[in-house]
Description:
The complex is a heterodimer. Chain A has 6 helices and 5 strands. By secondary structure, chain A is of the alpha/beta class. In chain A, the strands form 2 sheets. Chain A has a 3-stranded parallel β-sheet with strand order 1-2-3. Chain A has a two-stranded antiparallel sheet with strand order 4-5. In chain A, helix 2 (21-30) runs antiparallel to helix 6 (142-157) and helix 3 crosses helix 6 (142-157). The termini of chain A are far apart. Chain B is an all-alpha fold. Chain B has a domain at 63-117. Chain B has 3 helices and no strands. Classes of the chains: A alpha/beta, B mainly alpha. The A-B interface holds A 68-70, 88-89, 91-92, 94-95, 98, 161-162, 169-172, 176-177, 180 and B 34-36, 38-40, 42-43, 45, 48, 50-52.
Amino acid sequence: MAVDNELKIELGKQGVFVTTIEELYNWGRRSSVWPMQFGLACCAIEMIATTMARYDLARFGAEVFRPSPRQADLMIISGTVTKKMAPQVVRLYNQMGEPKYVIAMGACAISGGPFKQGYNVLKGIDRYIPVDVHIPGCPPRPEALIQAFMTLQKKIDGQSLTGADRPRHLDAEAQGEFPVPEPGEHDLEPTSNPGVWTVPVVIR
Amino acid sequence: MASNPYFSLAVLFVVALGFGLAPLGLARLWAIVFSPAKPNTVKNAIYECGLVSKGDAWVQFRSAYYLYAIIFLIFDVEAVFLLPFAVAFTGLGMAACAAMLVFVLLLVEGLAWAWAKGILTWA
Ligand code: SF4
């Protein structure tokens, strides 16, 4: 049973702290989002700067960059995803334990960016894995990454434990495996994952 | 029972066990009630480098490494004693030097034995 928000504030004034399991659970998760330690291109430099003392991502409980996908909650796609690298990125995403989140950082990660016309550049990682927050910019400033981070925290905070709209990791029916693309003759096979991305219709 | 001198230890043991097991049990309960497991072959792969995993994590090492480890001990123990010996060398008497020499010779004998047995040649 959810506690009425006004009642909660009123109780808080009296020194009584009320919470629900759901709130506790989300509070714990959003305060310890551990990103995976890998960078793909120039955006990674900004990601590194974000973790350093000047911008201090540690304030959000996210300074613990994990070298193993099994220990990570967040994948920051920081840079150009080439078609050679995409299978590796998707495989690592698969190997992360649920709940897992993705921030696509920079023009390259969200669309291919300046290299969109390149024969070997993936035009956005959201073709294969579900992206939670997109940040534009080339590169985005550390503040932008922090903003994306706070957006993600808000999203985690709003996730419900039960009900039809509960997040993927609490739903036994939801998709658990994201197919890893294979290098084909001219492009990756398949060129996108229909479960997470629909091919836009081009109207000429 | 409470007068037994070990009673407090037993209580501490039970509490410590509970302290360790309760979070594990809660996590398991949470997984059963809320968070379904969705294993698949990609997720359960043994390596985490991003590439396709090959082989098994339970690789076996040659038993010949064991002999090398034993022989390494000869040098290890020798170094441990040689260092203080070298530091105190100027102040040592004849007897101490002789004792050290015997010690080194004993260890060298082990090496010579291994050498004669042909252990140092990699088969
Ligand atoms: S978006 Fe710009 S800065 Fe970021 S990886 Fe692409 S080219 Fe580099």
